[in-house]
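Hi,

I'm pasting everything inline rather than attaching a file, because the server keeps stripping attachments. The sequence lines come first, and each chain or strand is labelled.
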Amino acid sequence: MRPINPLRARGVYRAPLIPSWILIGGAVVVALIGAYPYYGSNAYVLSLLGKFLCFAIFALSIDLIWGFTGILSLGQAVYFGIGAYFVALSLKINYALTHPTRYGGKIPDFMEWNGLTSLPDFMTPLMNVPFAVVCALLVPTLLAFLFGVITFKRHIYGVYCAVITLAESLILQDFIIEYQAYTGGFNGITDYSNYVGAPFLWFILAVTVVFFVAARALTHSRVGTVLKSIRDNDLRAEFMGYNVANYRIFVFCVSAFMAATAGALYAAWVGIVSFLDAGPVFSIQAVIWTAVGGRGTIIGPFVGAFLVNGAEFFLSGTLAQWWQIVVGGLFIFVVLVLRDGIVGTIAGWVRKRRKGNFRQFIEESDQKAHDRQRDWDPQGAPRAGEEVR
Amino acid sequence: MVQSIITQFLSGFSVVAILVIAALGLAIIFGVAGVINMAHGEMIMLGAYTAAVVGKLGGNTFIAIPVAFVIVGLLGLLIERGVIQWIYDRPLETLLATWGVGIILQTVVKLVFGPELYYVGAPKALLGGFRLIGRLPFPYYRLFLIVVAIVLLGLVFFVIYRTDFGLKVRAVRRNRAISGCLGIDTARVDMMIFMFGSGLAGIAGAVLAPIKSVSTTMGFPYAVDSYMVLVLGGVGNLWGVLAGSGVIGEAETILSFVFNNVIGRLLVFLFIVIIIRFVPRGIFGYYERR
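And the predicted assembly:
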């Protein structure tokens, strides 16, 4: 009989997909946000709620690759931005059809300012909104796939990946500013019919819930275990026979898809998209939301996005310039002191309190397994303490 | 066309020089201490502000260079002791922490100096220029940049390859644990390297101030360019800096001339990604055994 390690054995203990207390807490939060149109009347808070939900999805996309797989991307806003620009352009083009500019043109105003008289041919497919939405979701995913194939297949990750993605988003930002006739340039795309209102808030909320549950399911599955092992020791994961590059590419694409969805929802919700939404600063901000909330946890990004952005909303007015110093200090504080973020730290406390019982359980089972091993004594095997020649 | 591309190639040397100057400090911080210093751009910015202040007080670039080296070097010491010494074992997180440091530096400078741009004049001796082949004017200051790049490269080469300190630095870079066992104070080497690299960034700022208006956000593009230089050139040895700057600087100048700035940068970026597809650790990469 072989000894059984209770942790390895299948079916002995497996945490539920969604622990009951998270189910309850999540339901309360979802109800609180979803019911806002009924109990709150502040339109600005309503718009902030939708915005923060998009940010939470975006932060989750970073958590998937950084917190669970160990790829730090500083250019995640590229995917967010491309998704947002596709949707915003499409909405703007359609808006211009029914709202001619001051000079009577039926093209977006920024195109007219830049001397275009008609919609460029390559943009006409975007008049179809569903097509634009599909583009907004698939183009970033494809881009991420290409990027992943080029870099991860050649063992480029860690610092190098961070630097390359950073440059990527800087270049996209420059590109948007330079080609202002097609992208709105420095001013971004503004003034189109956006969807602020209860139904779209519920839609964003539904997407958020789906993504968070999906992320939990992914990281909770066997694939998720492999991803975490890649984060902890990619070389060992490779030696165990897993194709590390393919796992990285896969999770990078999933993450890009999430970021693109967040961007598309964001553009439709807030009604303004600018080059900043695709730039490196926004990418790194989202990284810090994830770090503050707790990377490697699923609710961390949500908590981080809401807390940091909420704090910015409440404090940046009174602190003005000093707010930036607070943000900088937050970066240093999270790295030096609060390494696991808010959620991670709390989870650590909870685990410590439970540890007494859990460790007892493991030690007892280990002892049993050990005893069993003693009964099973193959001929010739050295006993403990016996010298081996 | 061919002739103008040749003149662009020649003027590209000054772009290469700028990249070398900006990337040198980063190369030794990143290459030796293994710290991803995102505050590098802000250090360059501080060097430039130092030059602006020195200029206001009646000095010129020649005086600003040593002053910036000392001031920004001391600041680097402060940052290393205050923040980075705790996180050497987590390189990706040095990135976040130094980004935070960068934001703080930017805001403080903005609070002190105000949001307006500063202009720093070139020293009188370096005003004017001469004509290169064709009609392309070549300012003396660009020539000066090339000289500075060569001198700084020589200085860093001397420090790293010919001094006692450099020997320790290379030993630590090769194998930190064994160096520690042999009695080298590795923490001290890291500290000195960070200080030296910061000082070099300060020099970069002081030298680059006259060719660019000085503002709080001027540093970030330089930092990103420097990182691209290191990614392409590799951090294995200092030739990587020269190789990376050479390829990026020339390619960017010529491509920007043929197409436009943004397309040029985009093409250079794609070019870099394709190159490191084949040499993942850069042209002069250091393949460490893990």
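The interface with chain B takes residues 72, 74, 150-151, 154-156, 158-160, 162-164, 166-168, 170-171, 174-175, 178-179, 235, 280, 284, 287-288, 291, 321-322, 324-325, 327-332, 334-336 of chain A (CB under 8 Å).

If the labels don't parse on your end, tell me and I'll reformat.
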